[in-house]
Write a structure and sequence with these properties.
alpha+beta; Jelly Rolls; 9-stranded mixed β-sheet; globular; binds 2-oxoglutaric acid; binds fe (ii) ion; IPNS-like_sf; dioxygenase activity; DIOX_N
């Protein structure tokens, strides 16, 4: 395992995924990746197959989009409904919460520390359940195509990662692909404006509050600013920084996968704060990130995966469809 694992960032393994893609060390990569998911719920993959040019180009489009005047961005408004996740959300529109379902409690949390981020979400173009919401083409020519192309680029990476994950779980390589055939995925462009560090630390504002993701896996690209933190698995309540690693894709497991794996894989709580070493009296730099949320097919029945339960470790969860589960969790965020 030594040479596919290139090191770690605060305990999160950095893995050379190229050795899976070229077939040289498939099982070693799969094992190392699974171990990192079990230990921390996160992994860094380098040589992940998405070219740096494509990544850079998507960040450039994201900057162009968010630089548009507010009234133009509002031509593609994210619906207020909690079940249609497409289009533009202005700063403060979304407040991520963790397992809070009481509406009075939710209102209190939202009022307290709004998430000062803005986002644009898109999916596959033929999704009739959550149709895309685009700007008029002439507002930012080429943007729509860029999002759609990048969506499918990430889809390819997802398939490879799911193959490795299945191998790590000692399942046939294609096992998880069958549950991810509908491509109910979501590409999200995120911009975190600069905010005073002190306000972040006093929790008067949040960038993205502590939460876990809902789906099976999330592919996350971040710029070089930093600020992403994950809860320390060995020390709940404290956070470790998941610093940017050049050229790496972060992959984290979501709640669906944790449940599916009978909690052998962690869905780790994470948040975005000030990057380490920001001056106390200063403001954070703005930050861009691009998560790609992968969901199991909404119709897929999520029952504990073979090998994750036994007589000593019985199934902890009832079977549920991925759709029921994800939509239930998503609806809490708006
Ligand atoms: O911006 C980031 O690095 C994290 C974003 C995130 O956790 C999310 O959108 O669920
Ligand atoms: Fe997240």
């Amino acid at each position: 395992m030594a040479d596919v694992r290139m090191g770690d960032e605060h305990g999160i393994s950095v893995i050379d995924f190229g050795a899976f893609l070229n077939g040289a060390k498939k099982q070693e990569v799969a094992d190392a990746m699974l171990k990192s998911f079990q230990d921390t719920g996160f992994v860094y993959l380098v040589n992940h197959g998405i070219s740096q040019d494509k990544v850079q180009s998507m960040f450039d489009w994201s900057k162009k989009f968010f630089s548009l005047p507010q009234d133009i961005k509002m031509l593609a408004p994210h619906p207020s409904s909690g079940t249609h996740h497409r289009g533009y959300s202005a700063p403060g529109a979304e407040k991520v919460t963790q397992h809070v379902y009481d509406s009075a409690e939710l209102a209190k949390i939202r009022g307290k520390a709004p998430d000062v981020k803005e986002s644009f979400e898109s999916g596959r173009e033929d999704d009739i359940v959550q149709p895309n919401i685009w700007l008029p083409e002439d507002a930012l020519p080429g943007f729509r195509n860029a999002c759609l192309n990048f969506f499918w680029t990430c889809r390819e990476a997802e398939l490879n990662i799911l193959k490795a994950l299945a191998l790590g779980l000692n399942l046939p390589e294609g096992f998880l692909l069958e549950y991810h055939s509908a491509v109910d995925n979501q590409l999200r462009l995120l911009r975190y404006p600069s905010v005073p560090v002190e306000q972040l630390e006093r929790e008067e504002v949040a960038r993205i509050g502590a939460h876990s993701d809902f789906g099976s896996i999330t592919l996350l690209l971040q710029d070089d600013v930093g600020g992403l933190e994950i809860e320390d698995p060995n020390n709940p309540g404290t956070f470790l920084s998941a610093s940017p690693v050049e050229g790496a894709l972060i992959v984290n497991a979501g709640d669906t996968l944790a449940r599916w794996s009978n909690d052998t894989i962690r869905s780790t709580i994470h948040r975005v704060r000030a990057p380490p070493n920001s001056a106390k009296d200063g403001v954070t730099p703005e930050r861009y990130s691009i998560p790609y949320f992968c969901s199991a097919d909404f119709s897929a029945m999520i029952d504990c995966l073979p090998g994750t339960y036994s007589e000593e470790r019985p199934k902890k969860y009832e079977p549920v469809t991925a759709g029921q589960y994800v939509l239930y969790r998503l609806a809490q965020n708006y």
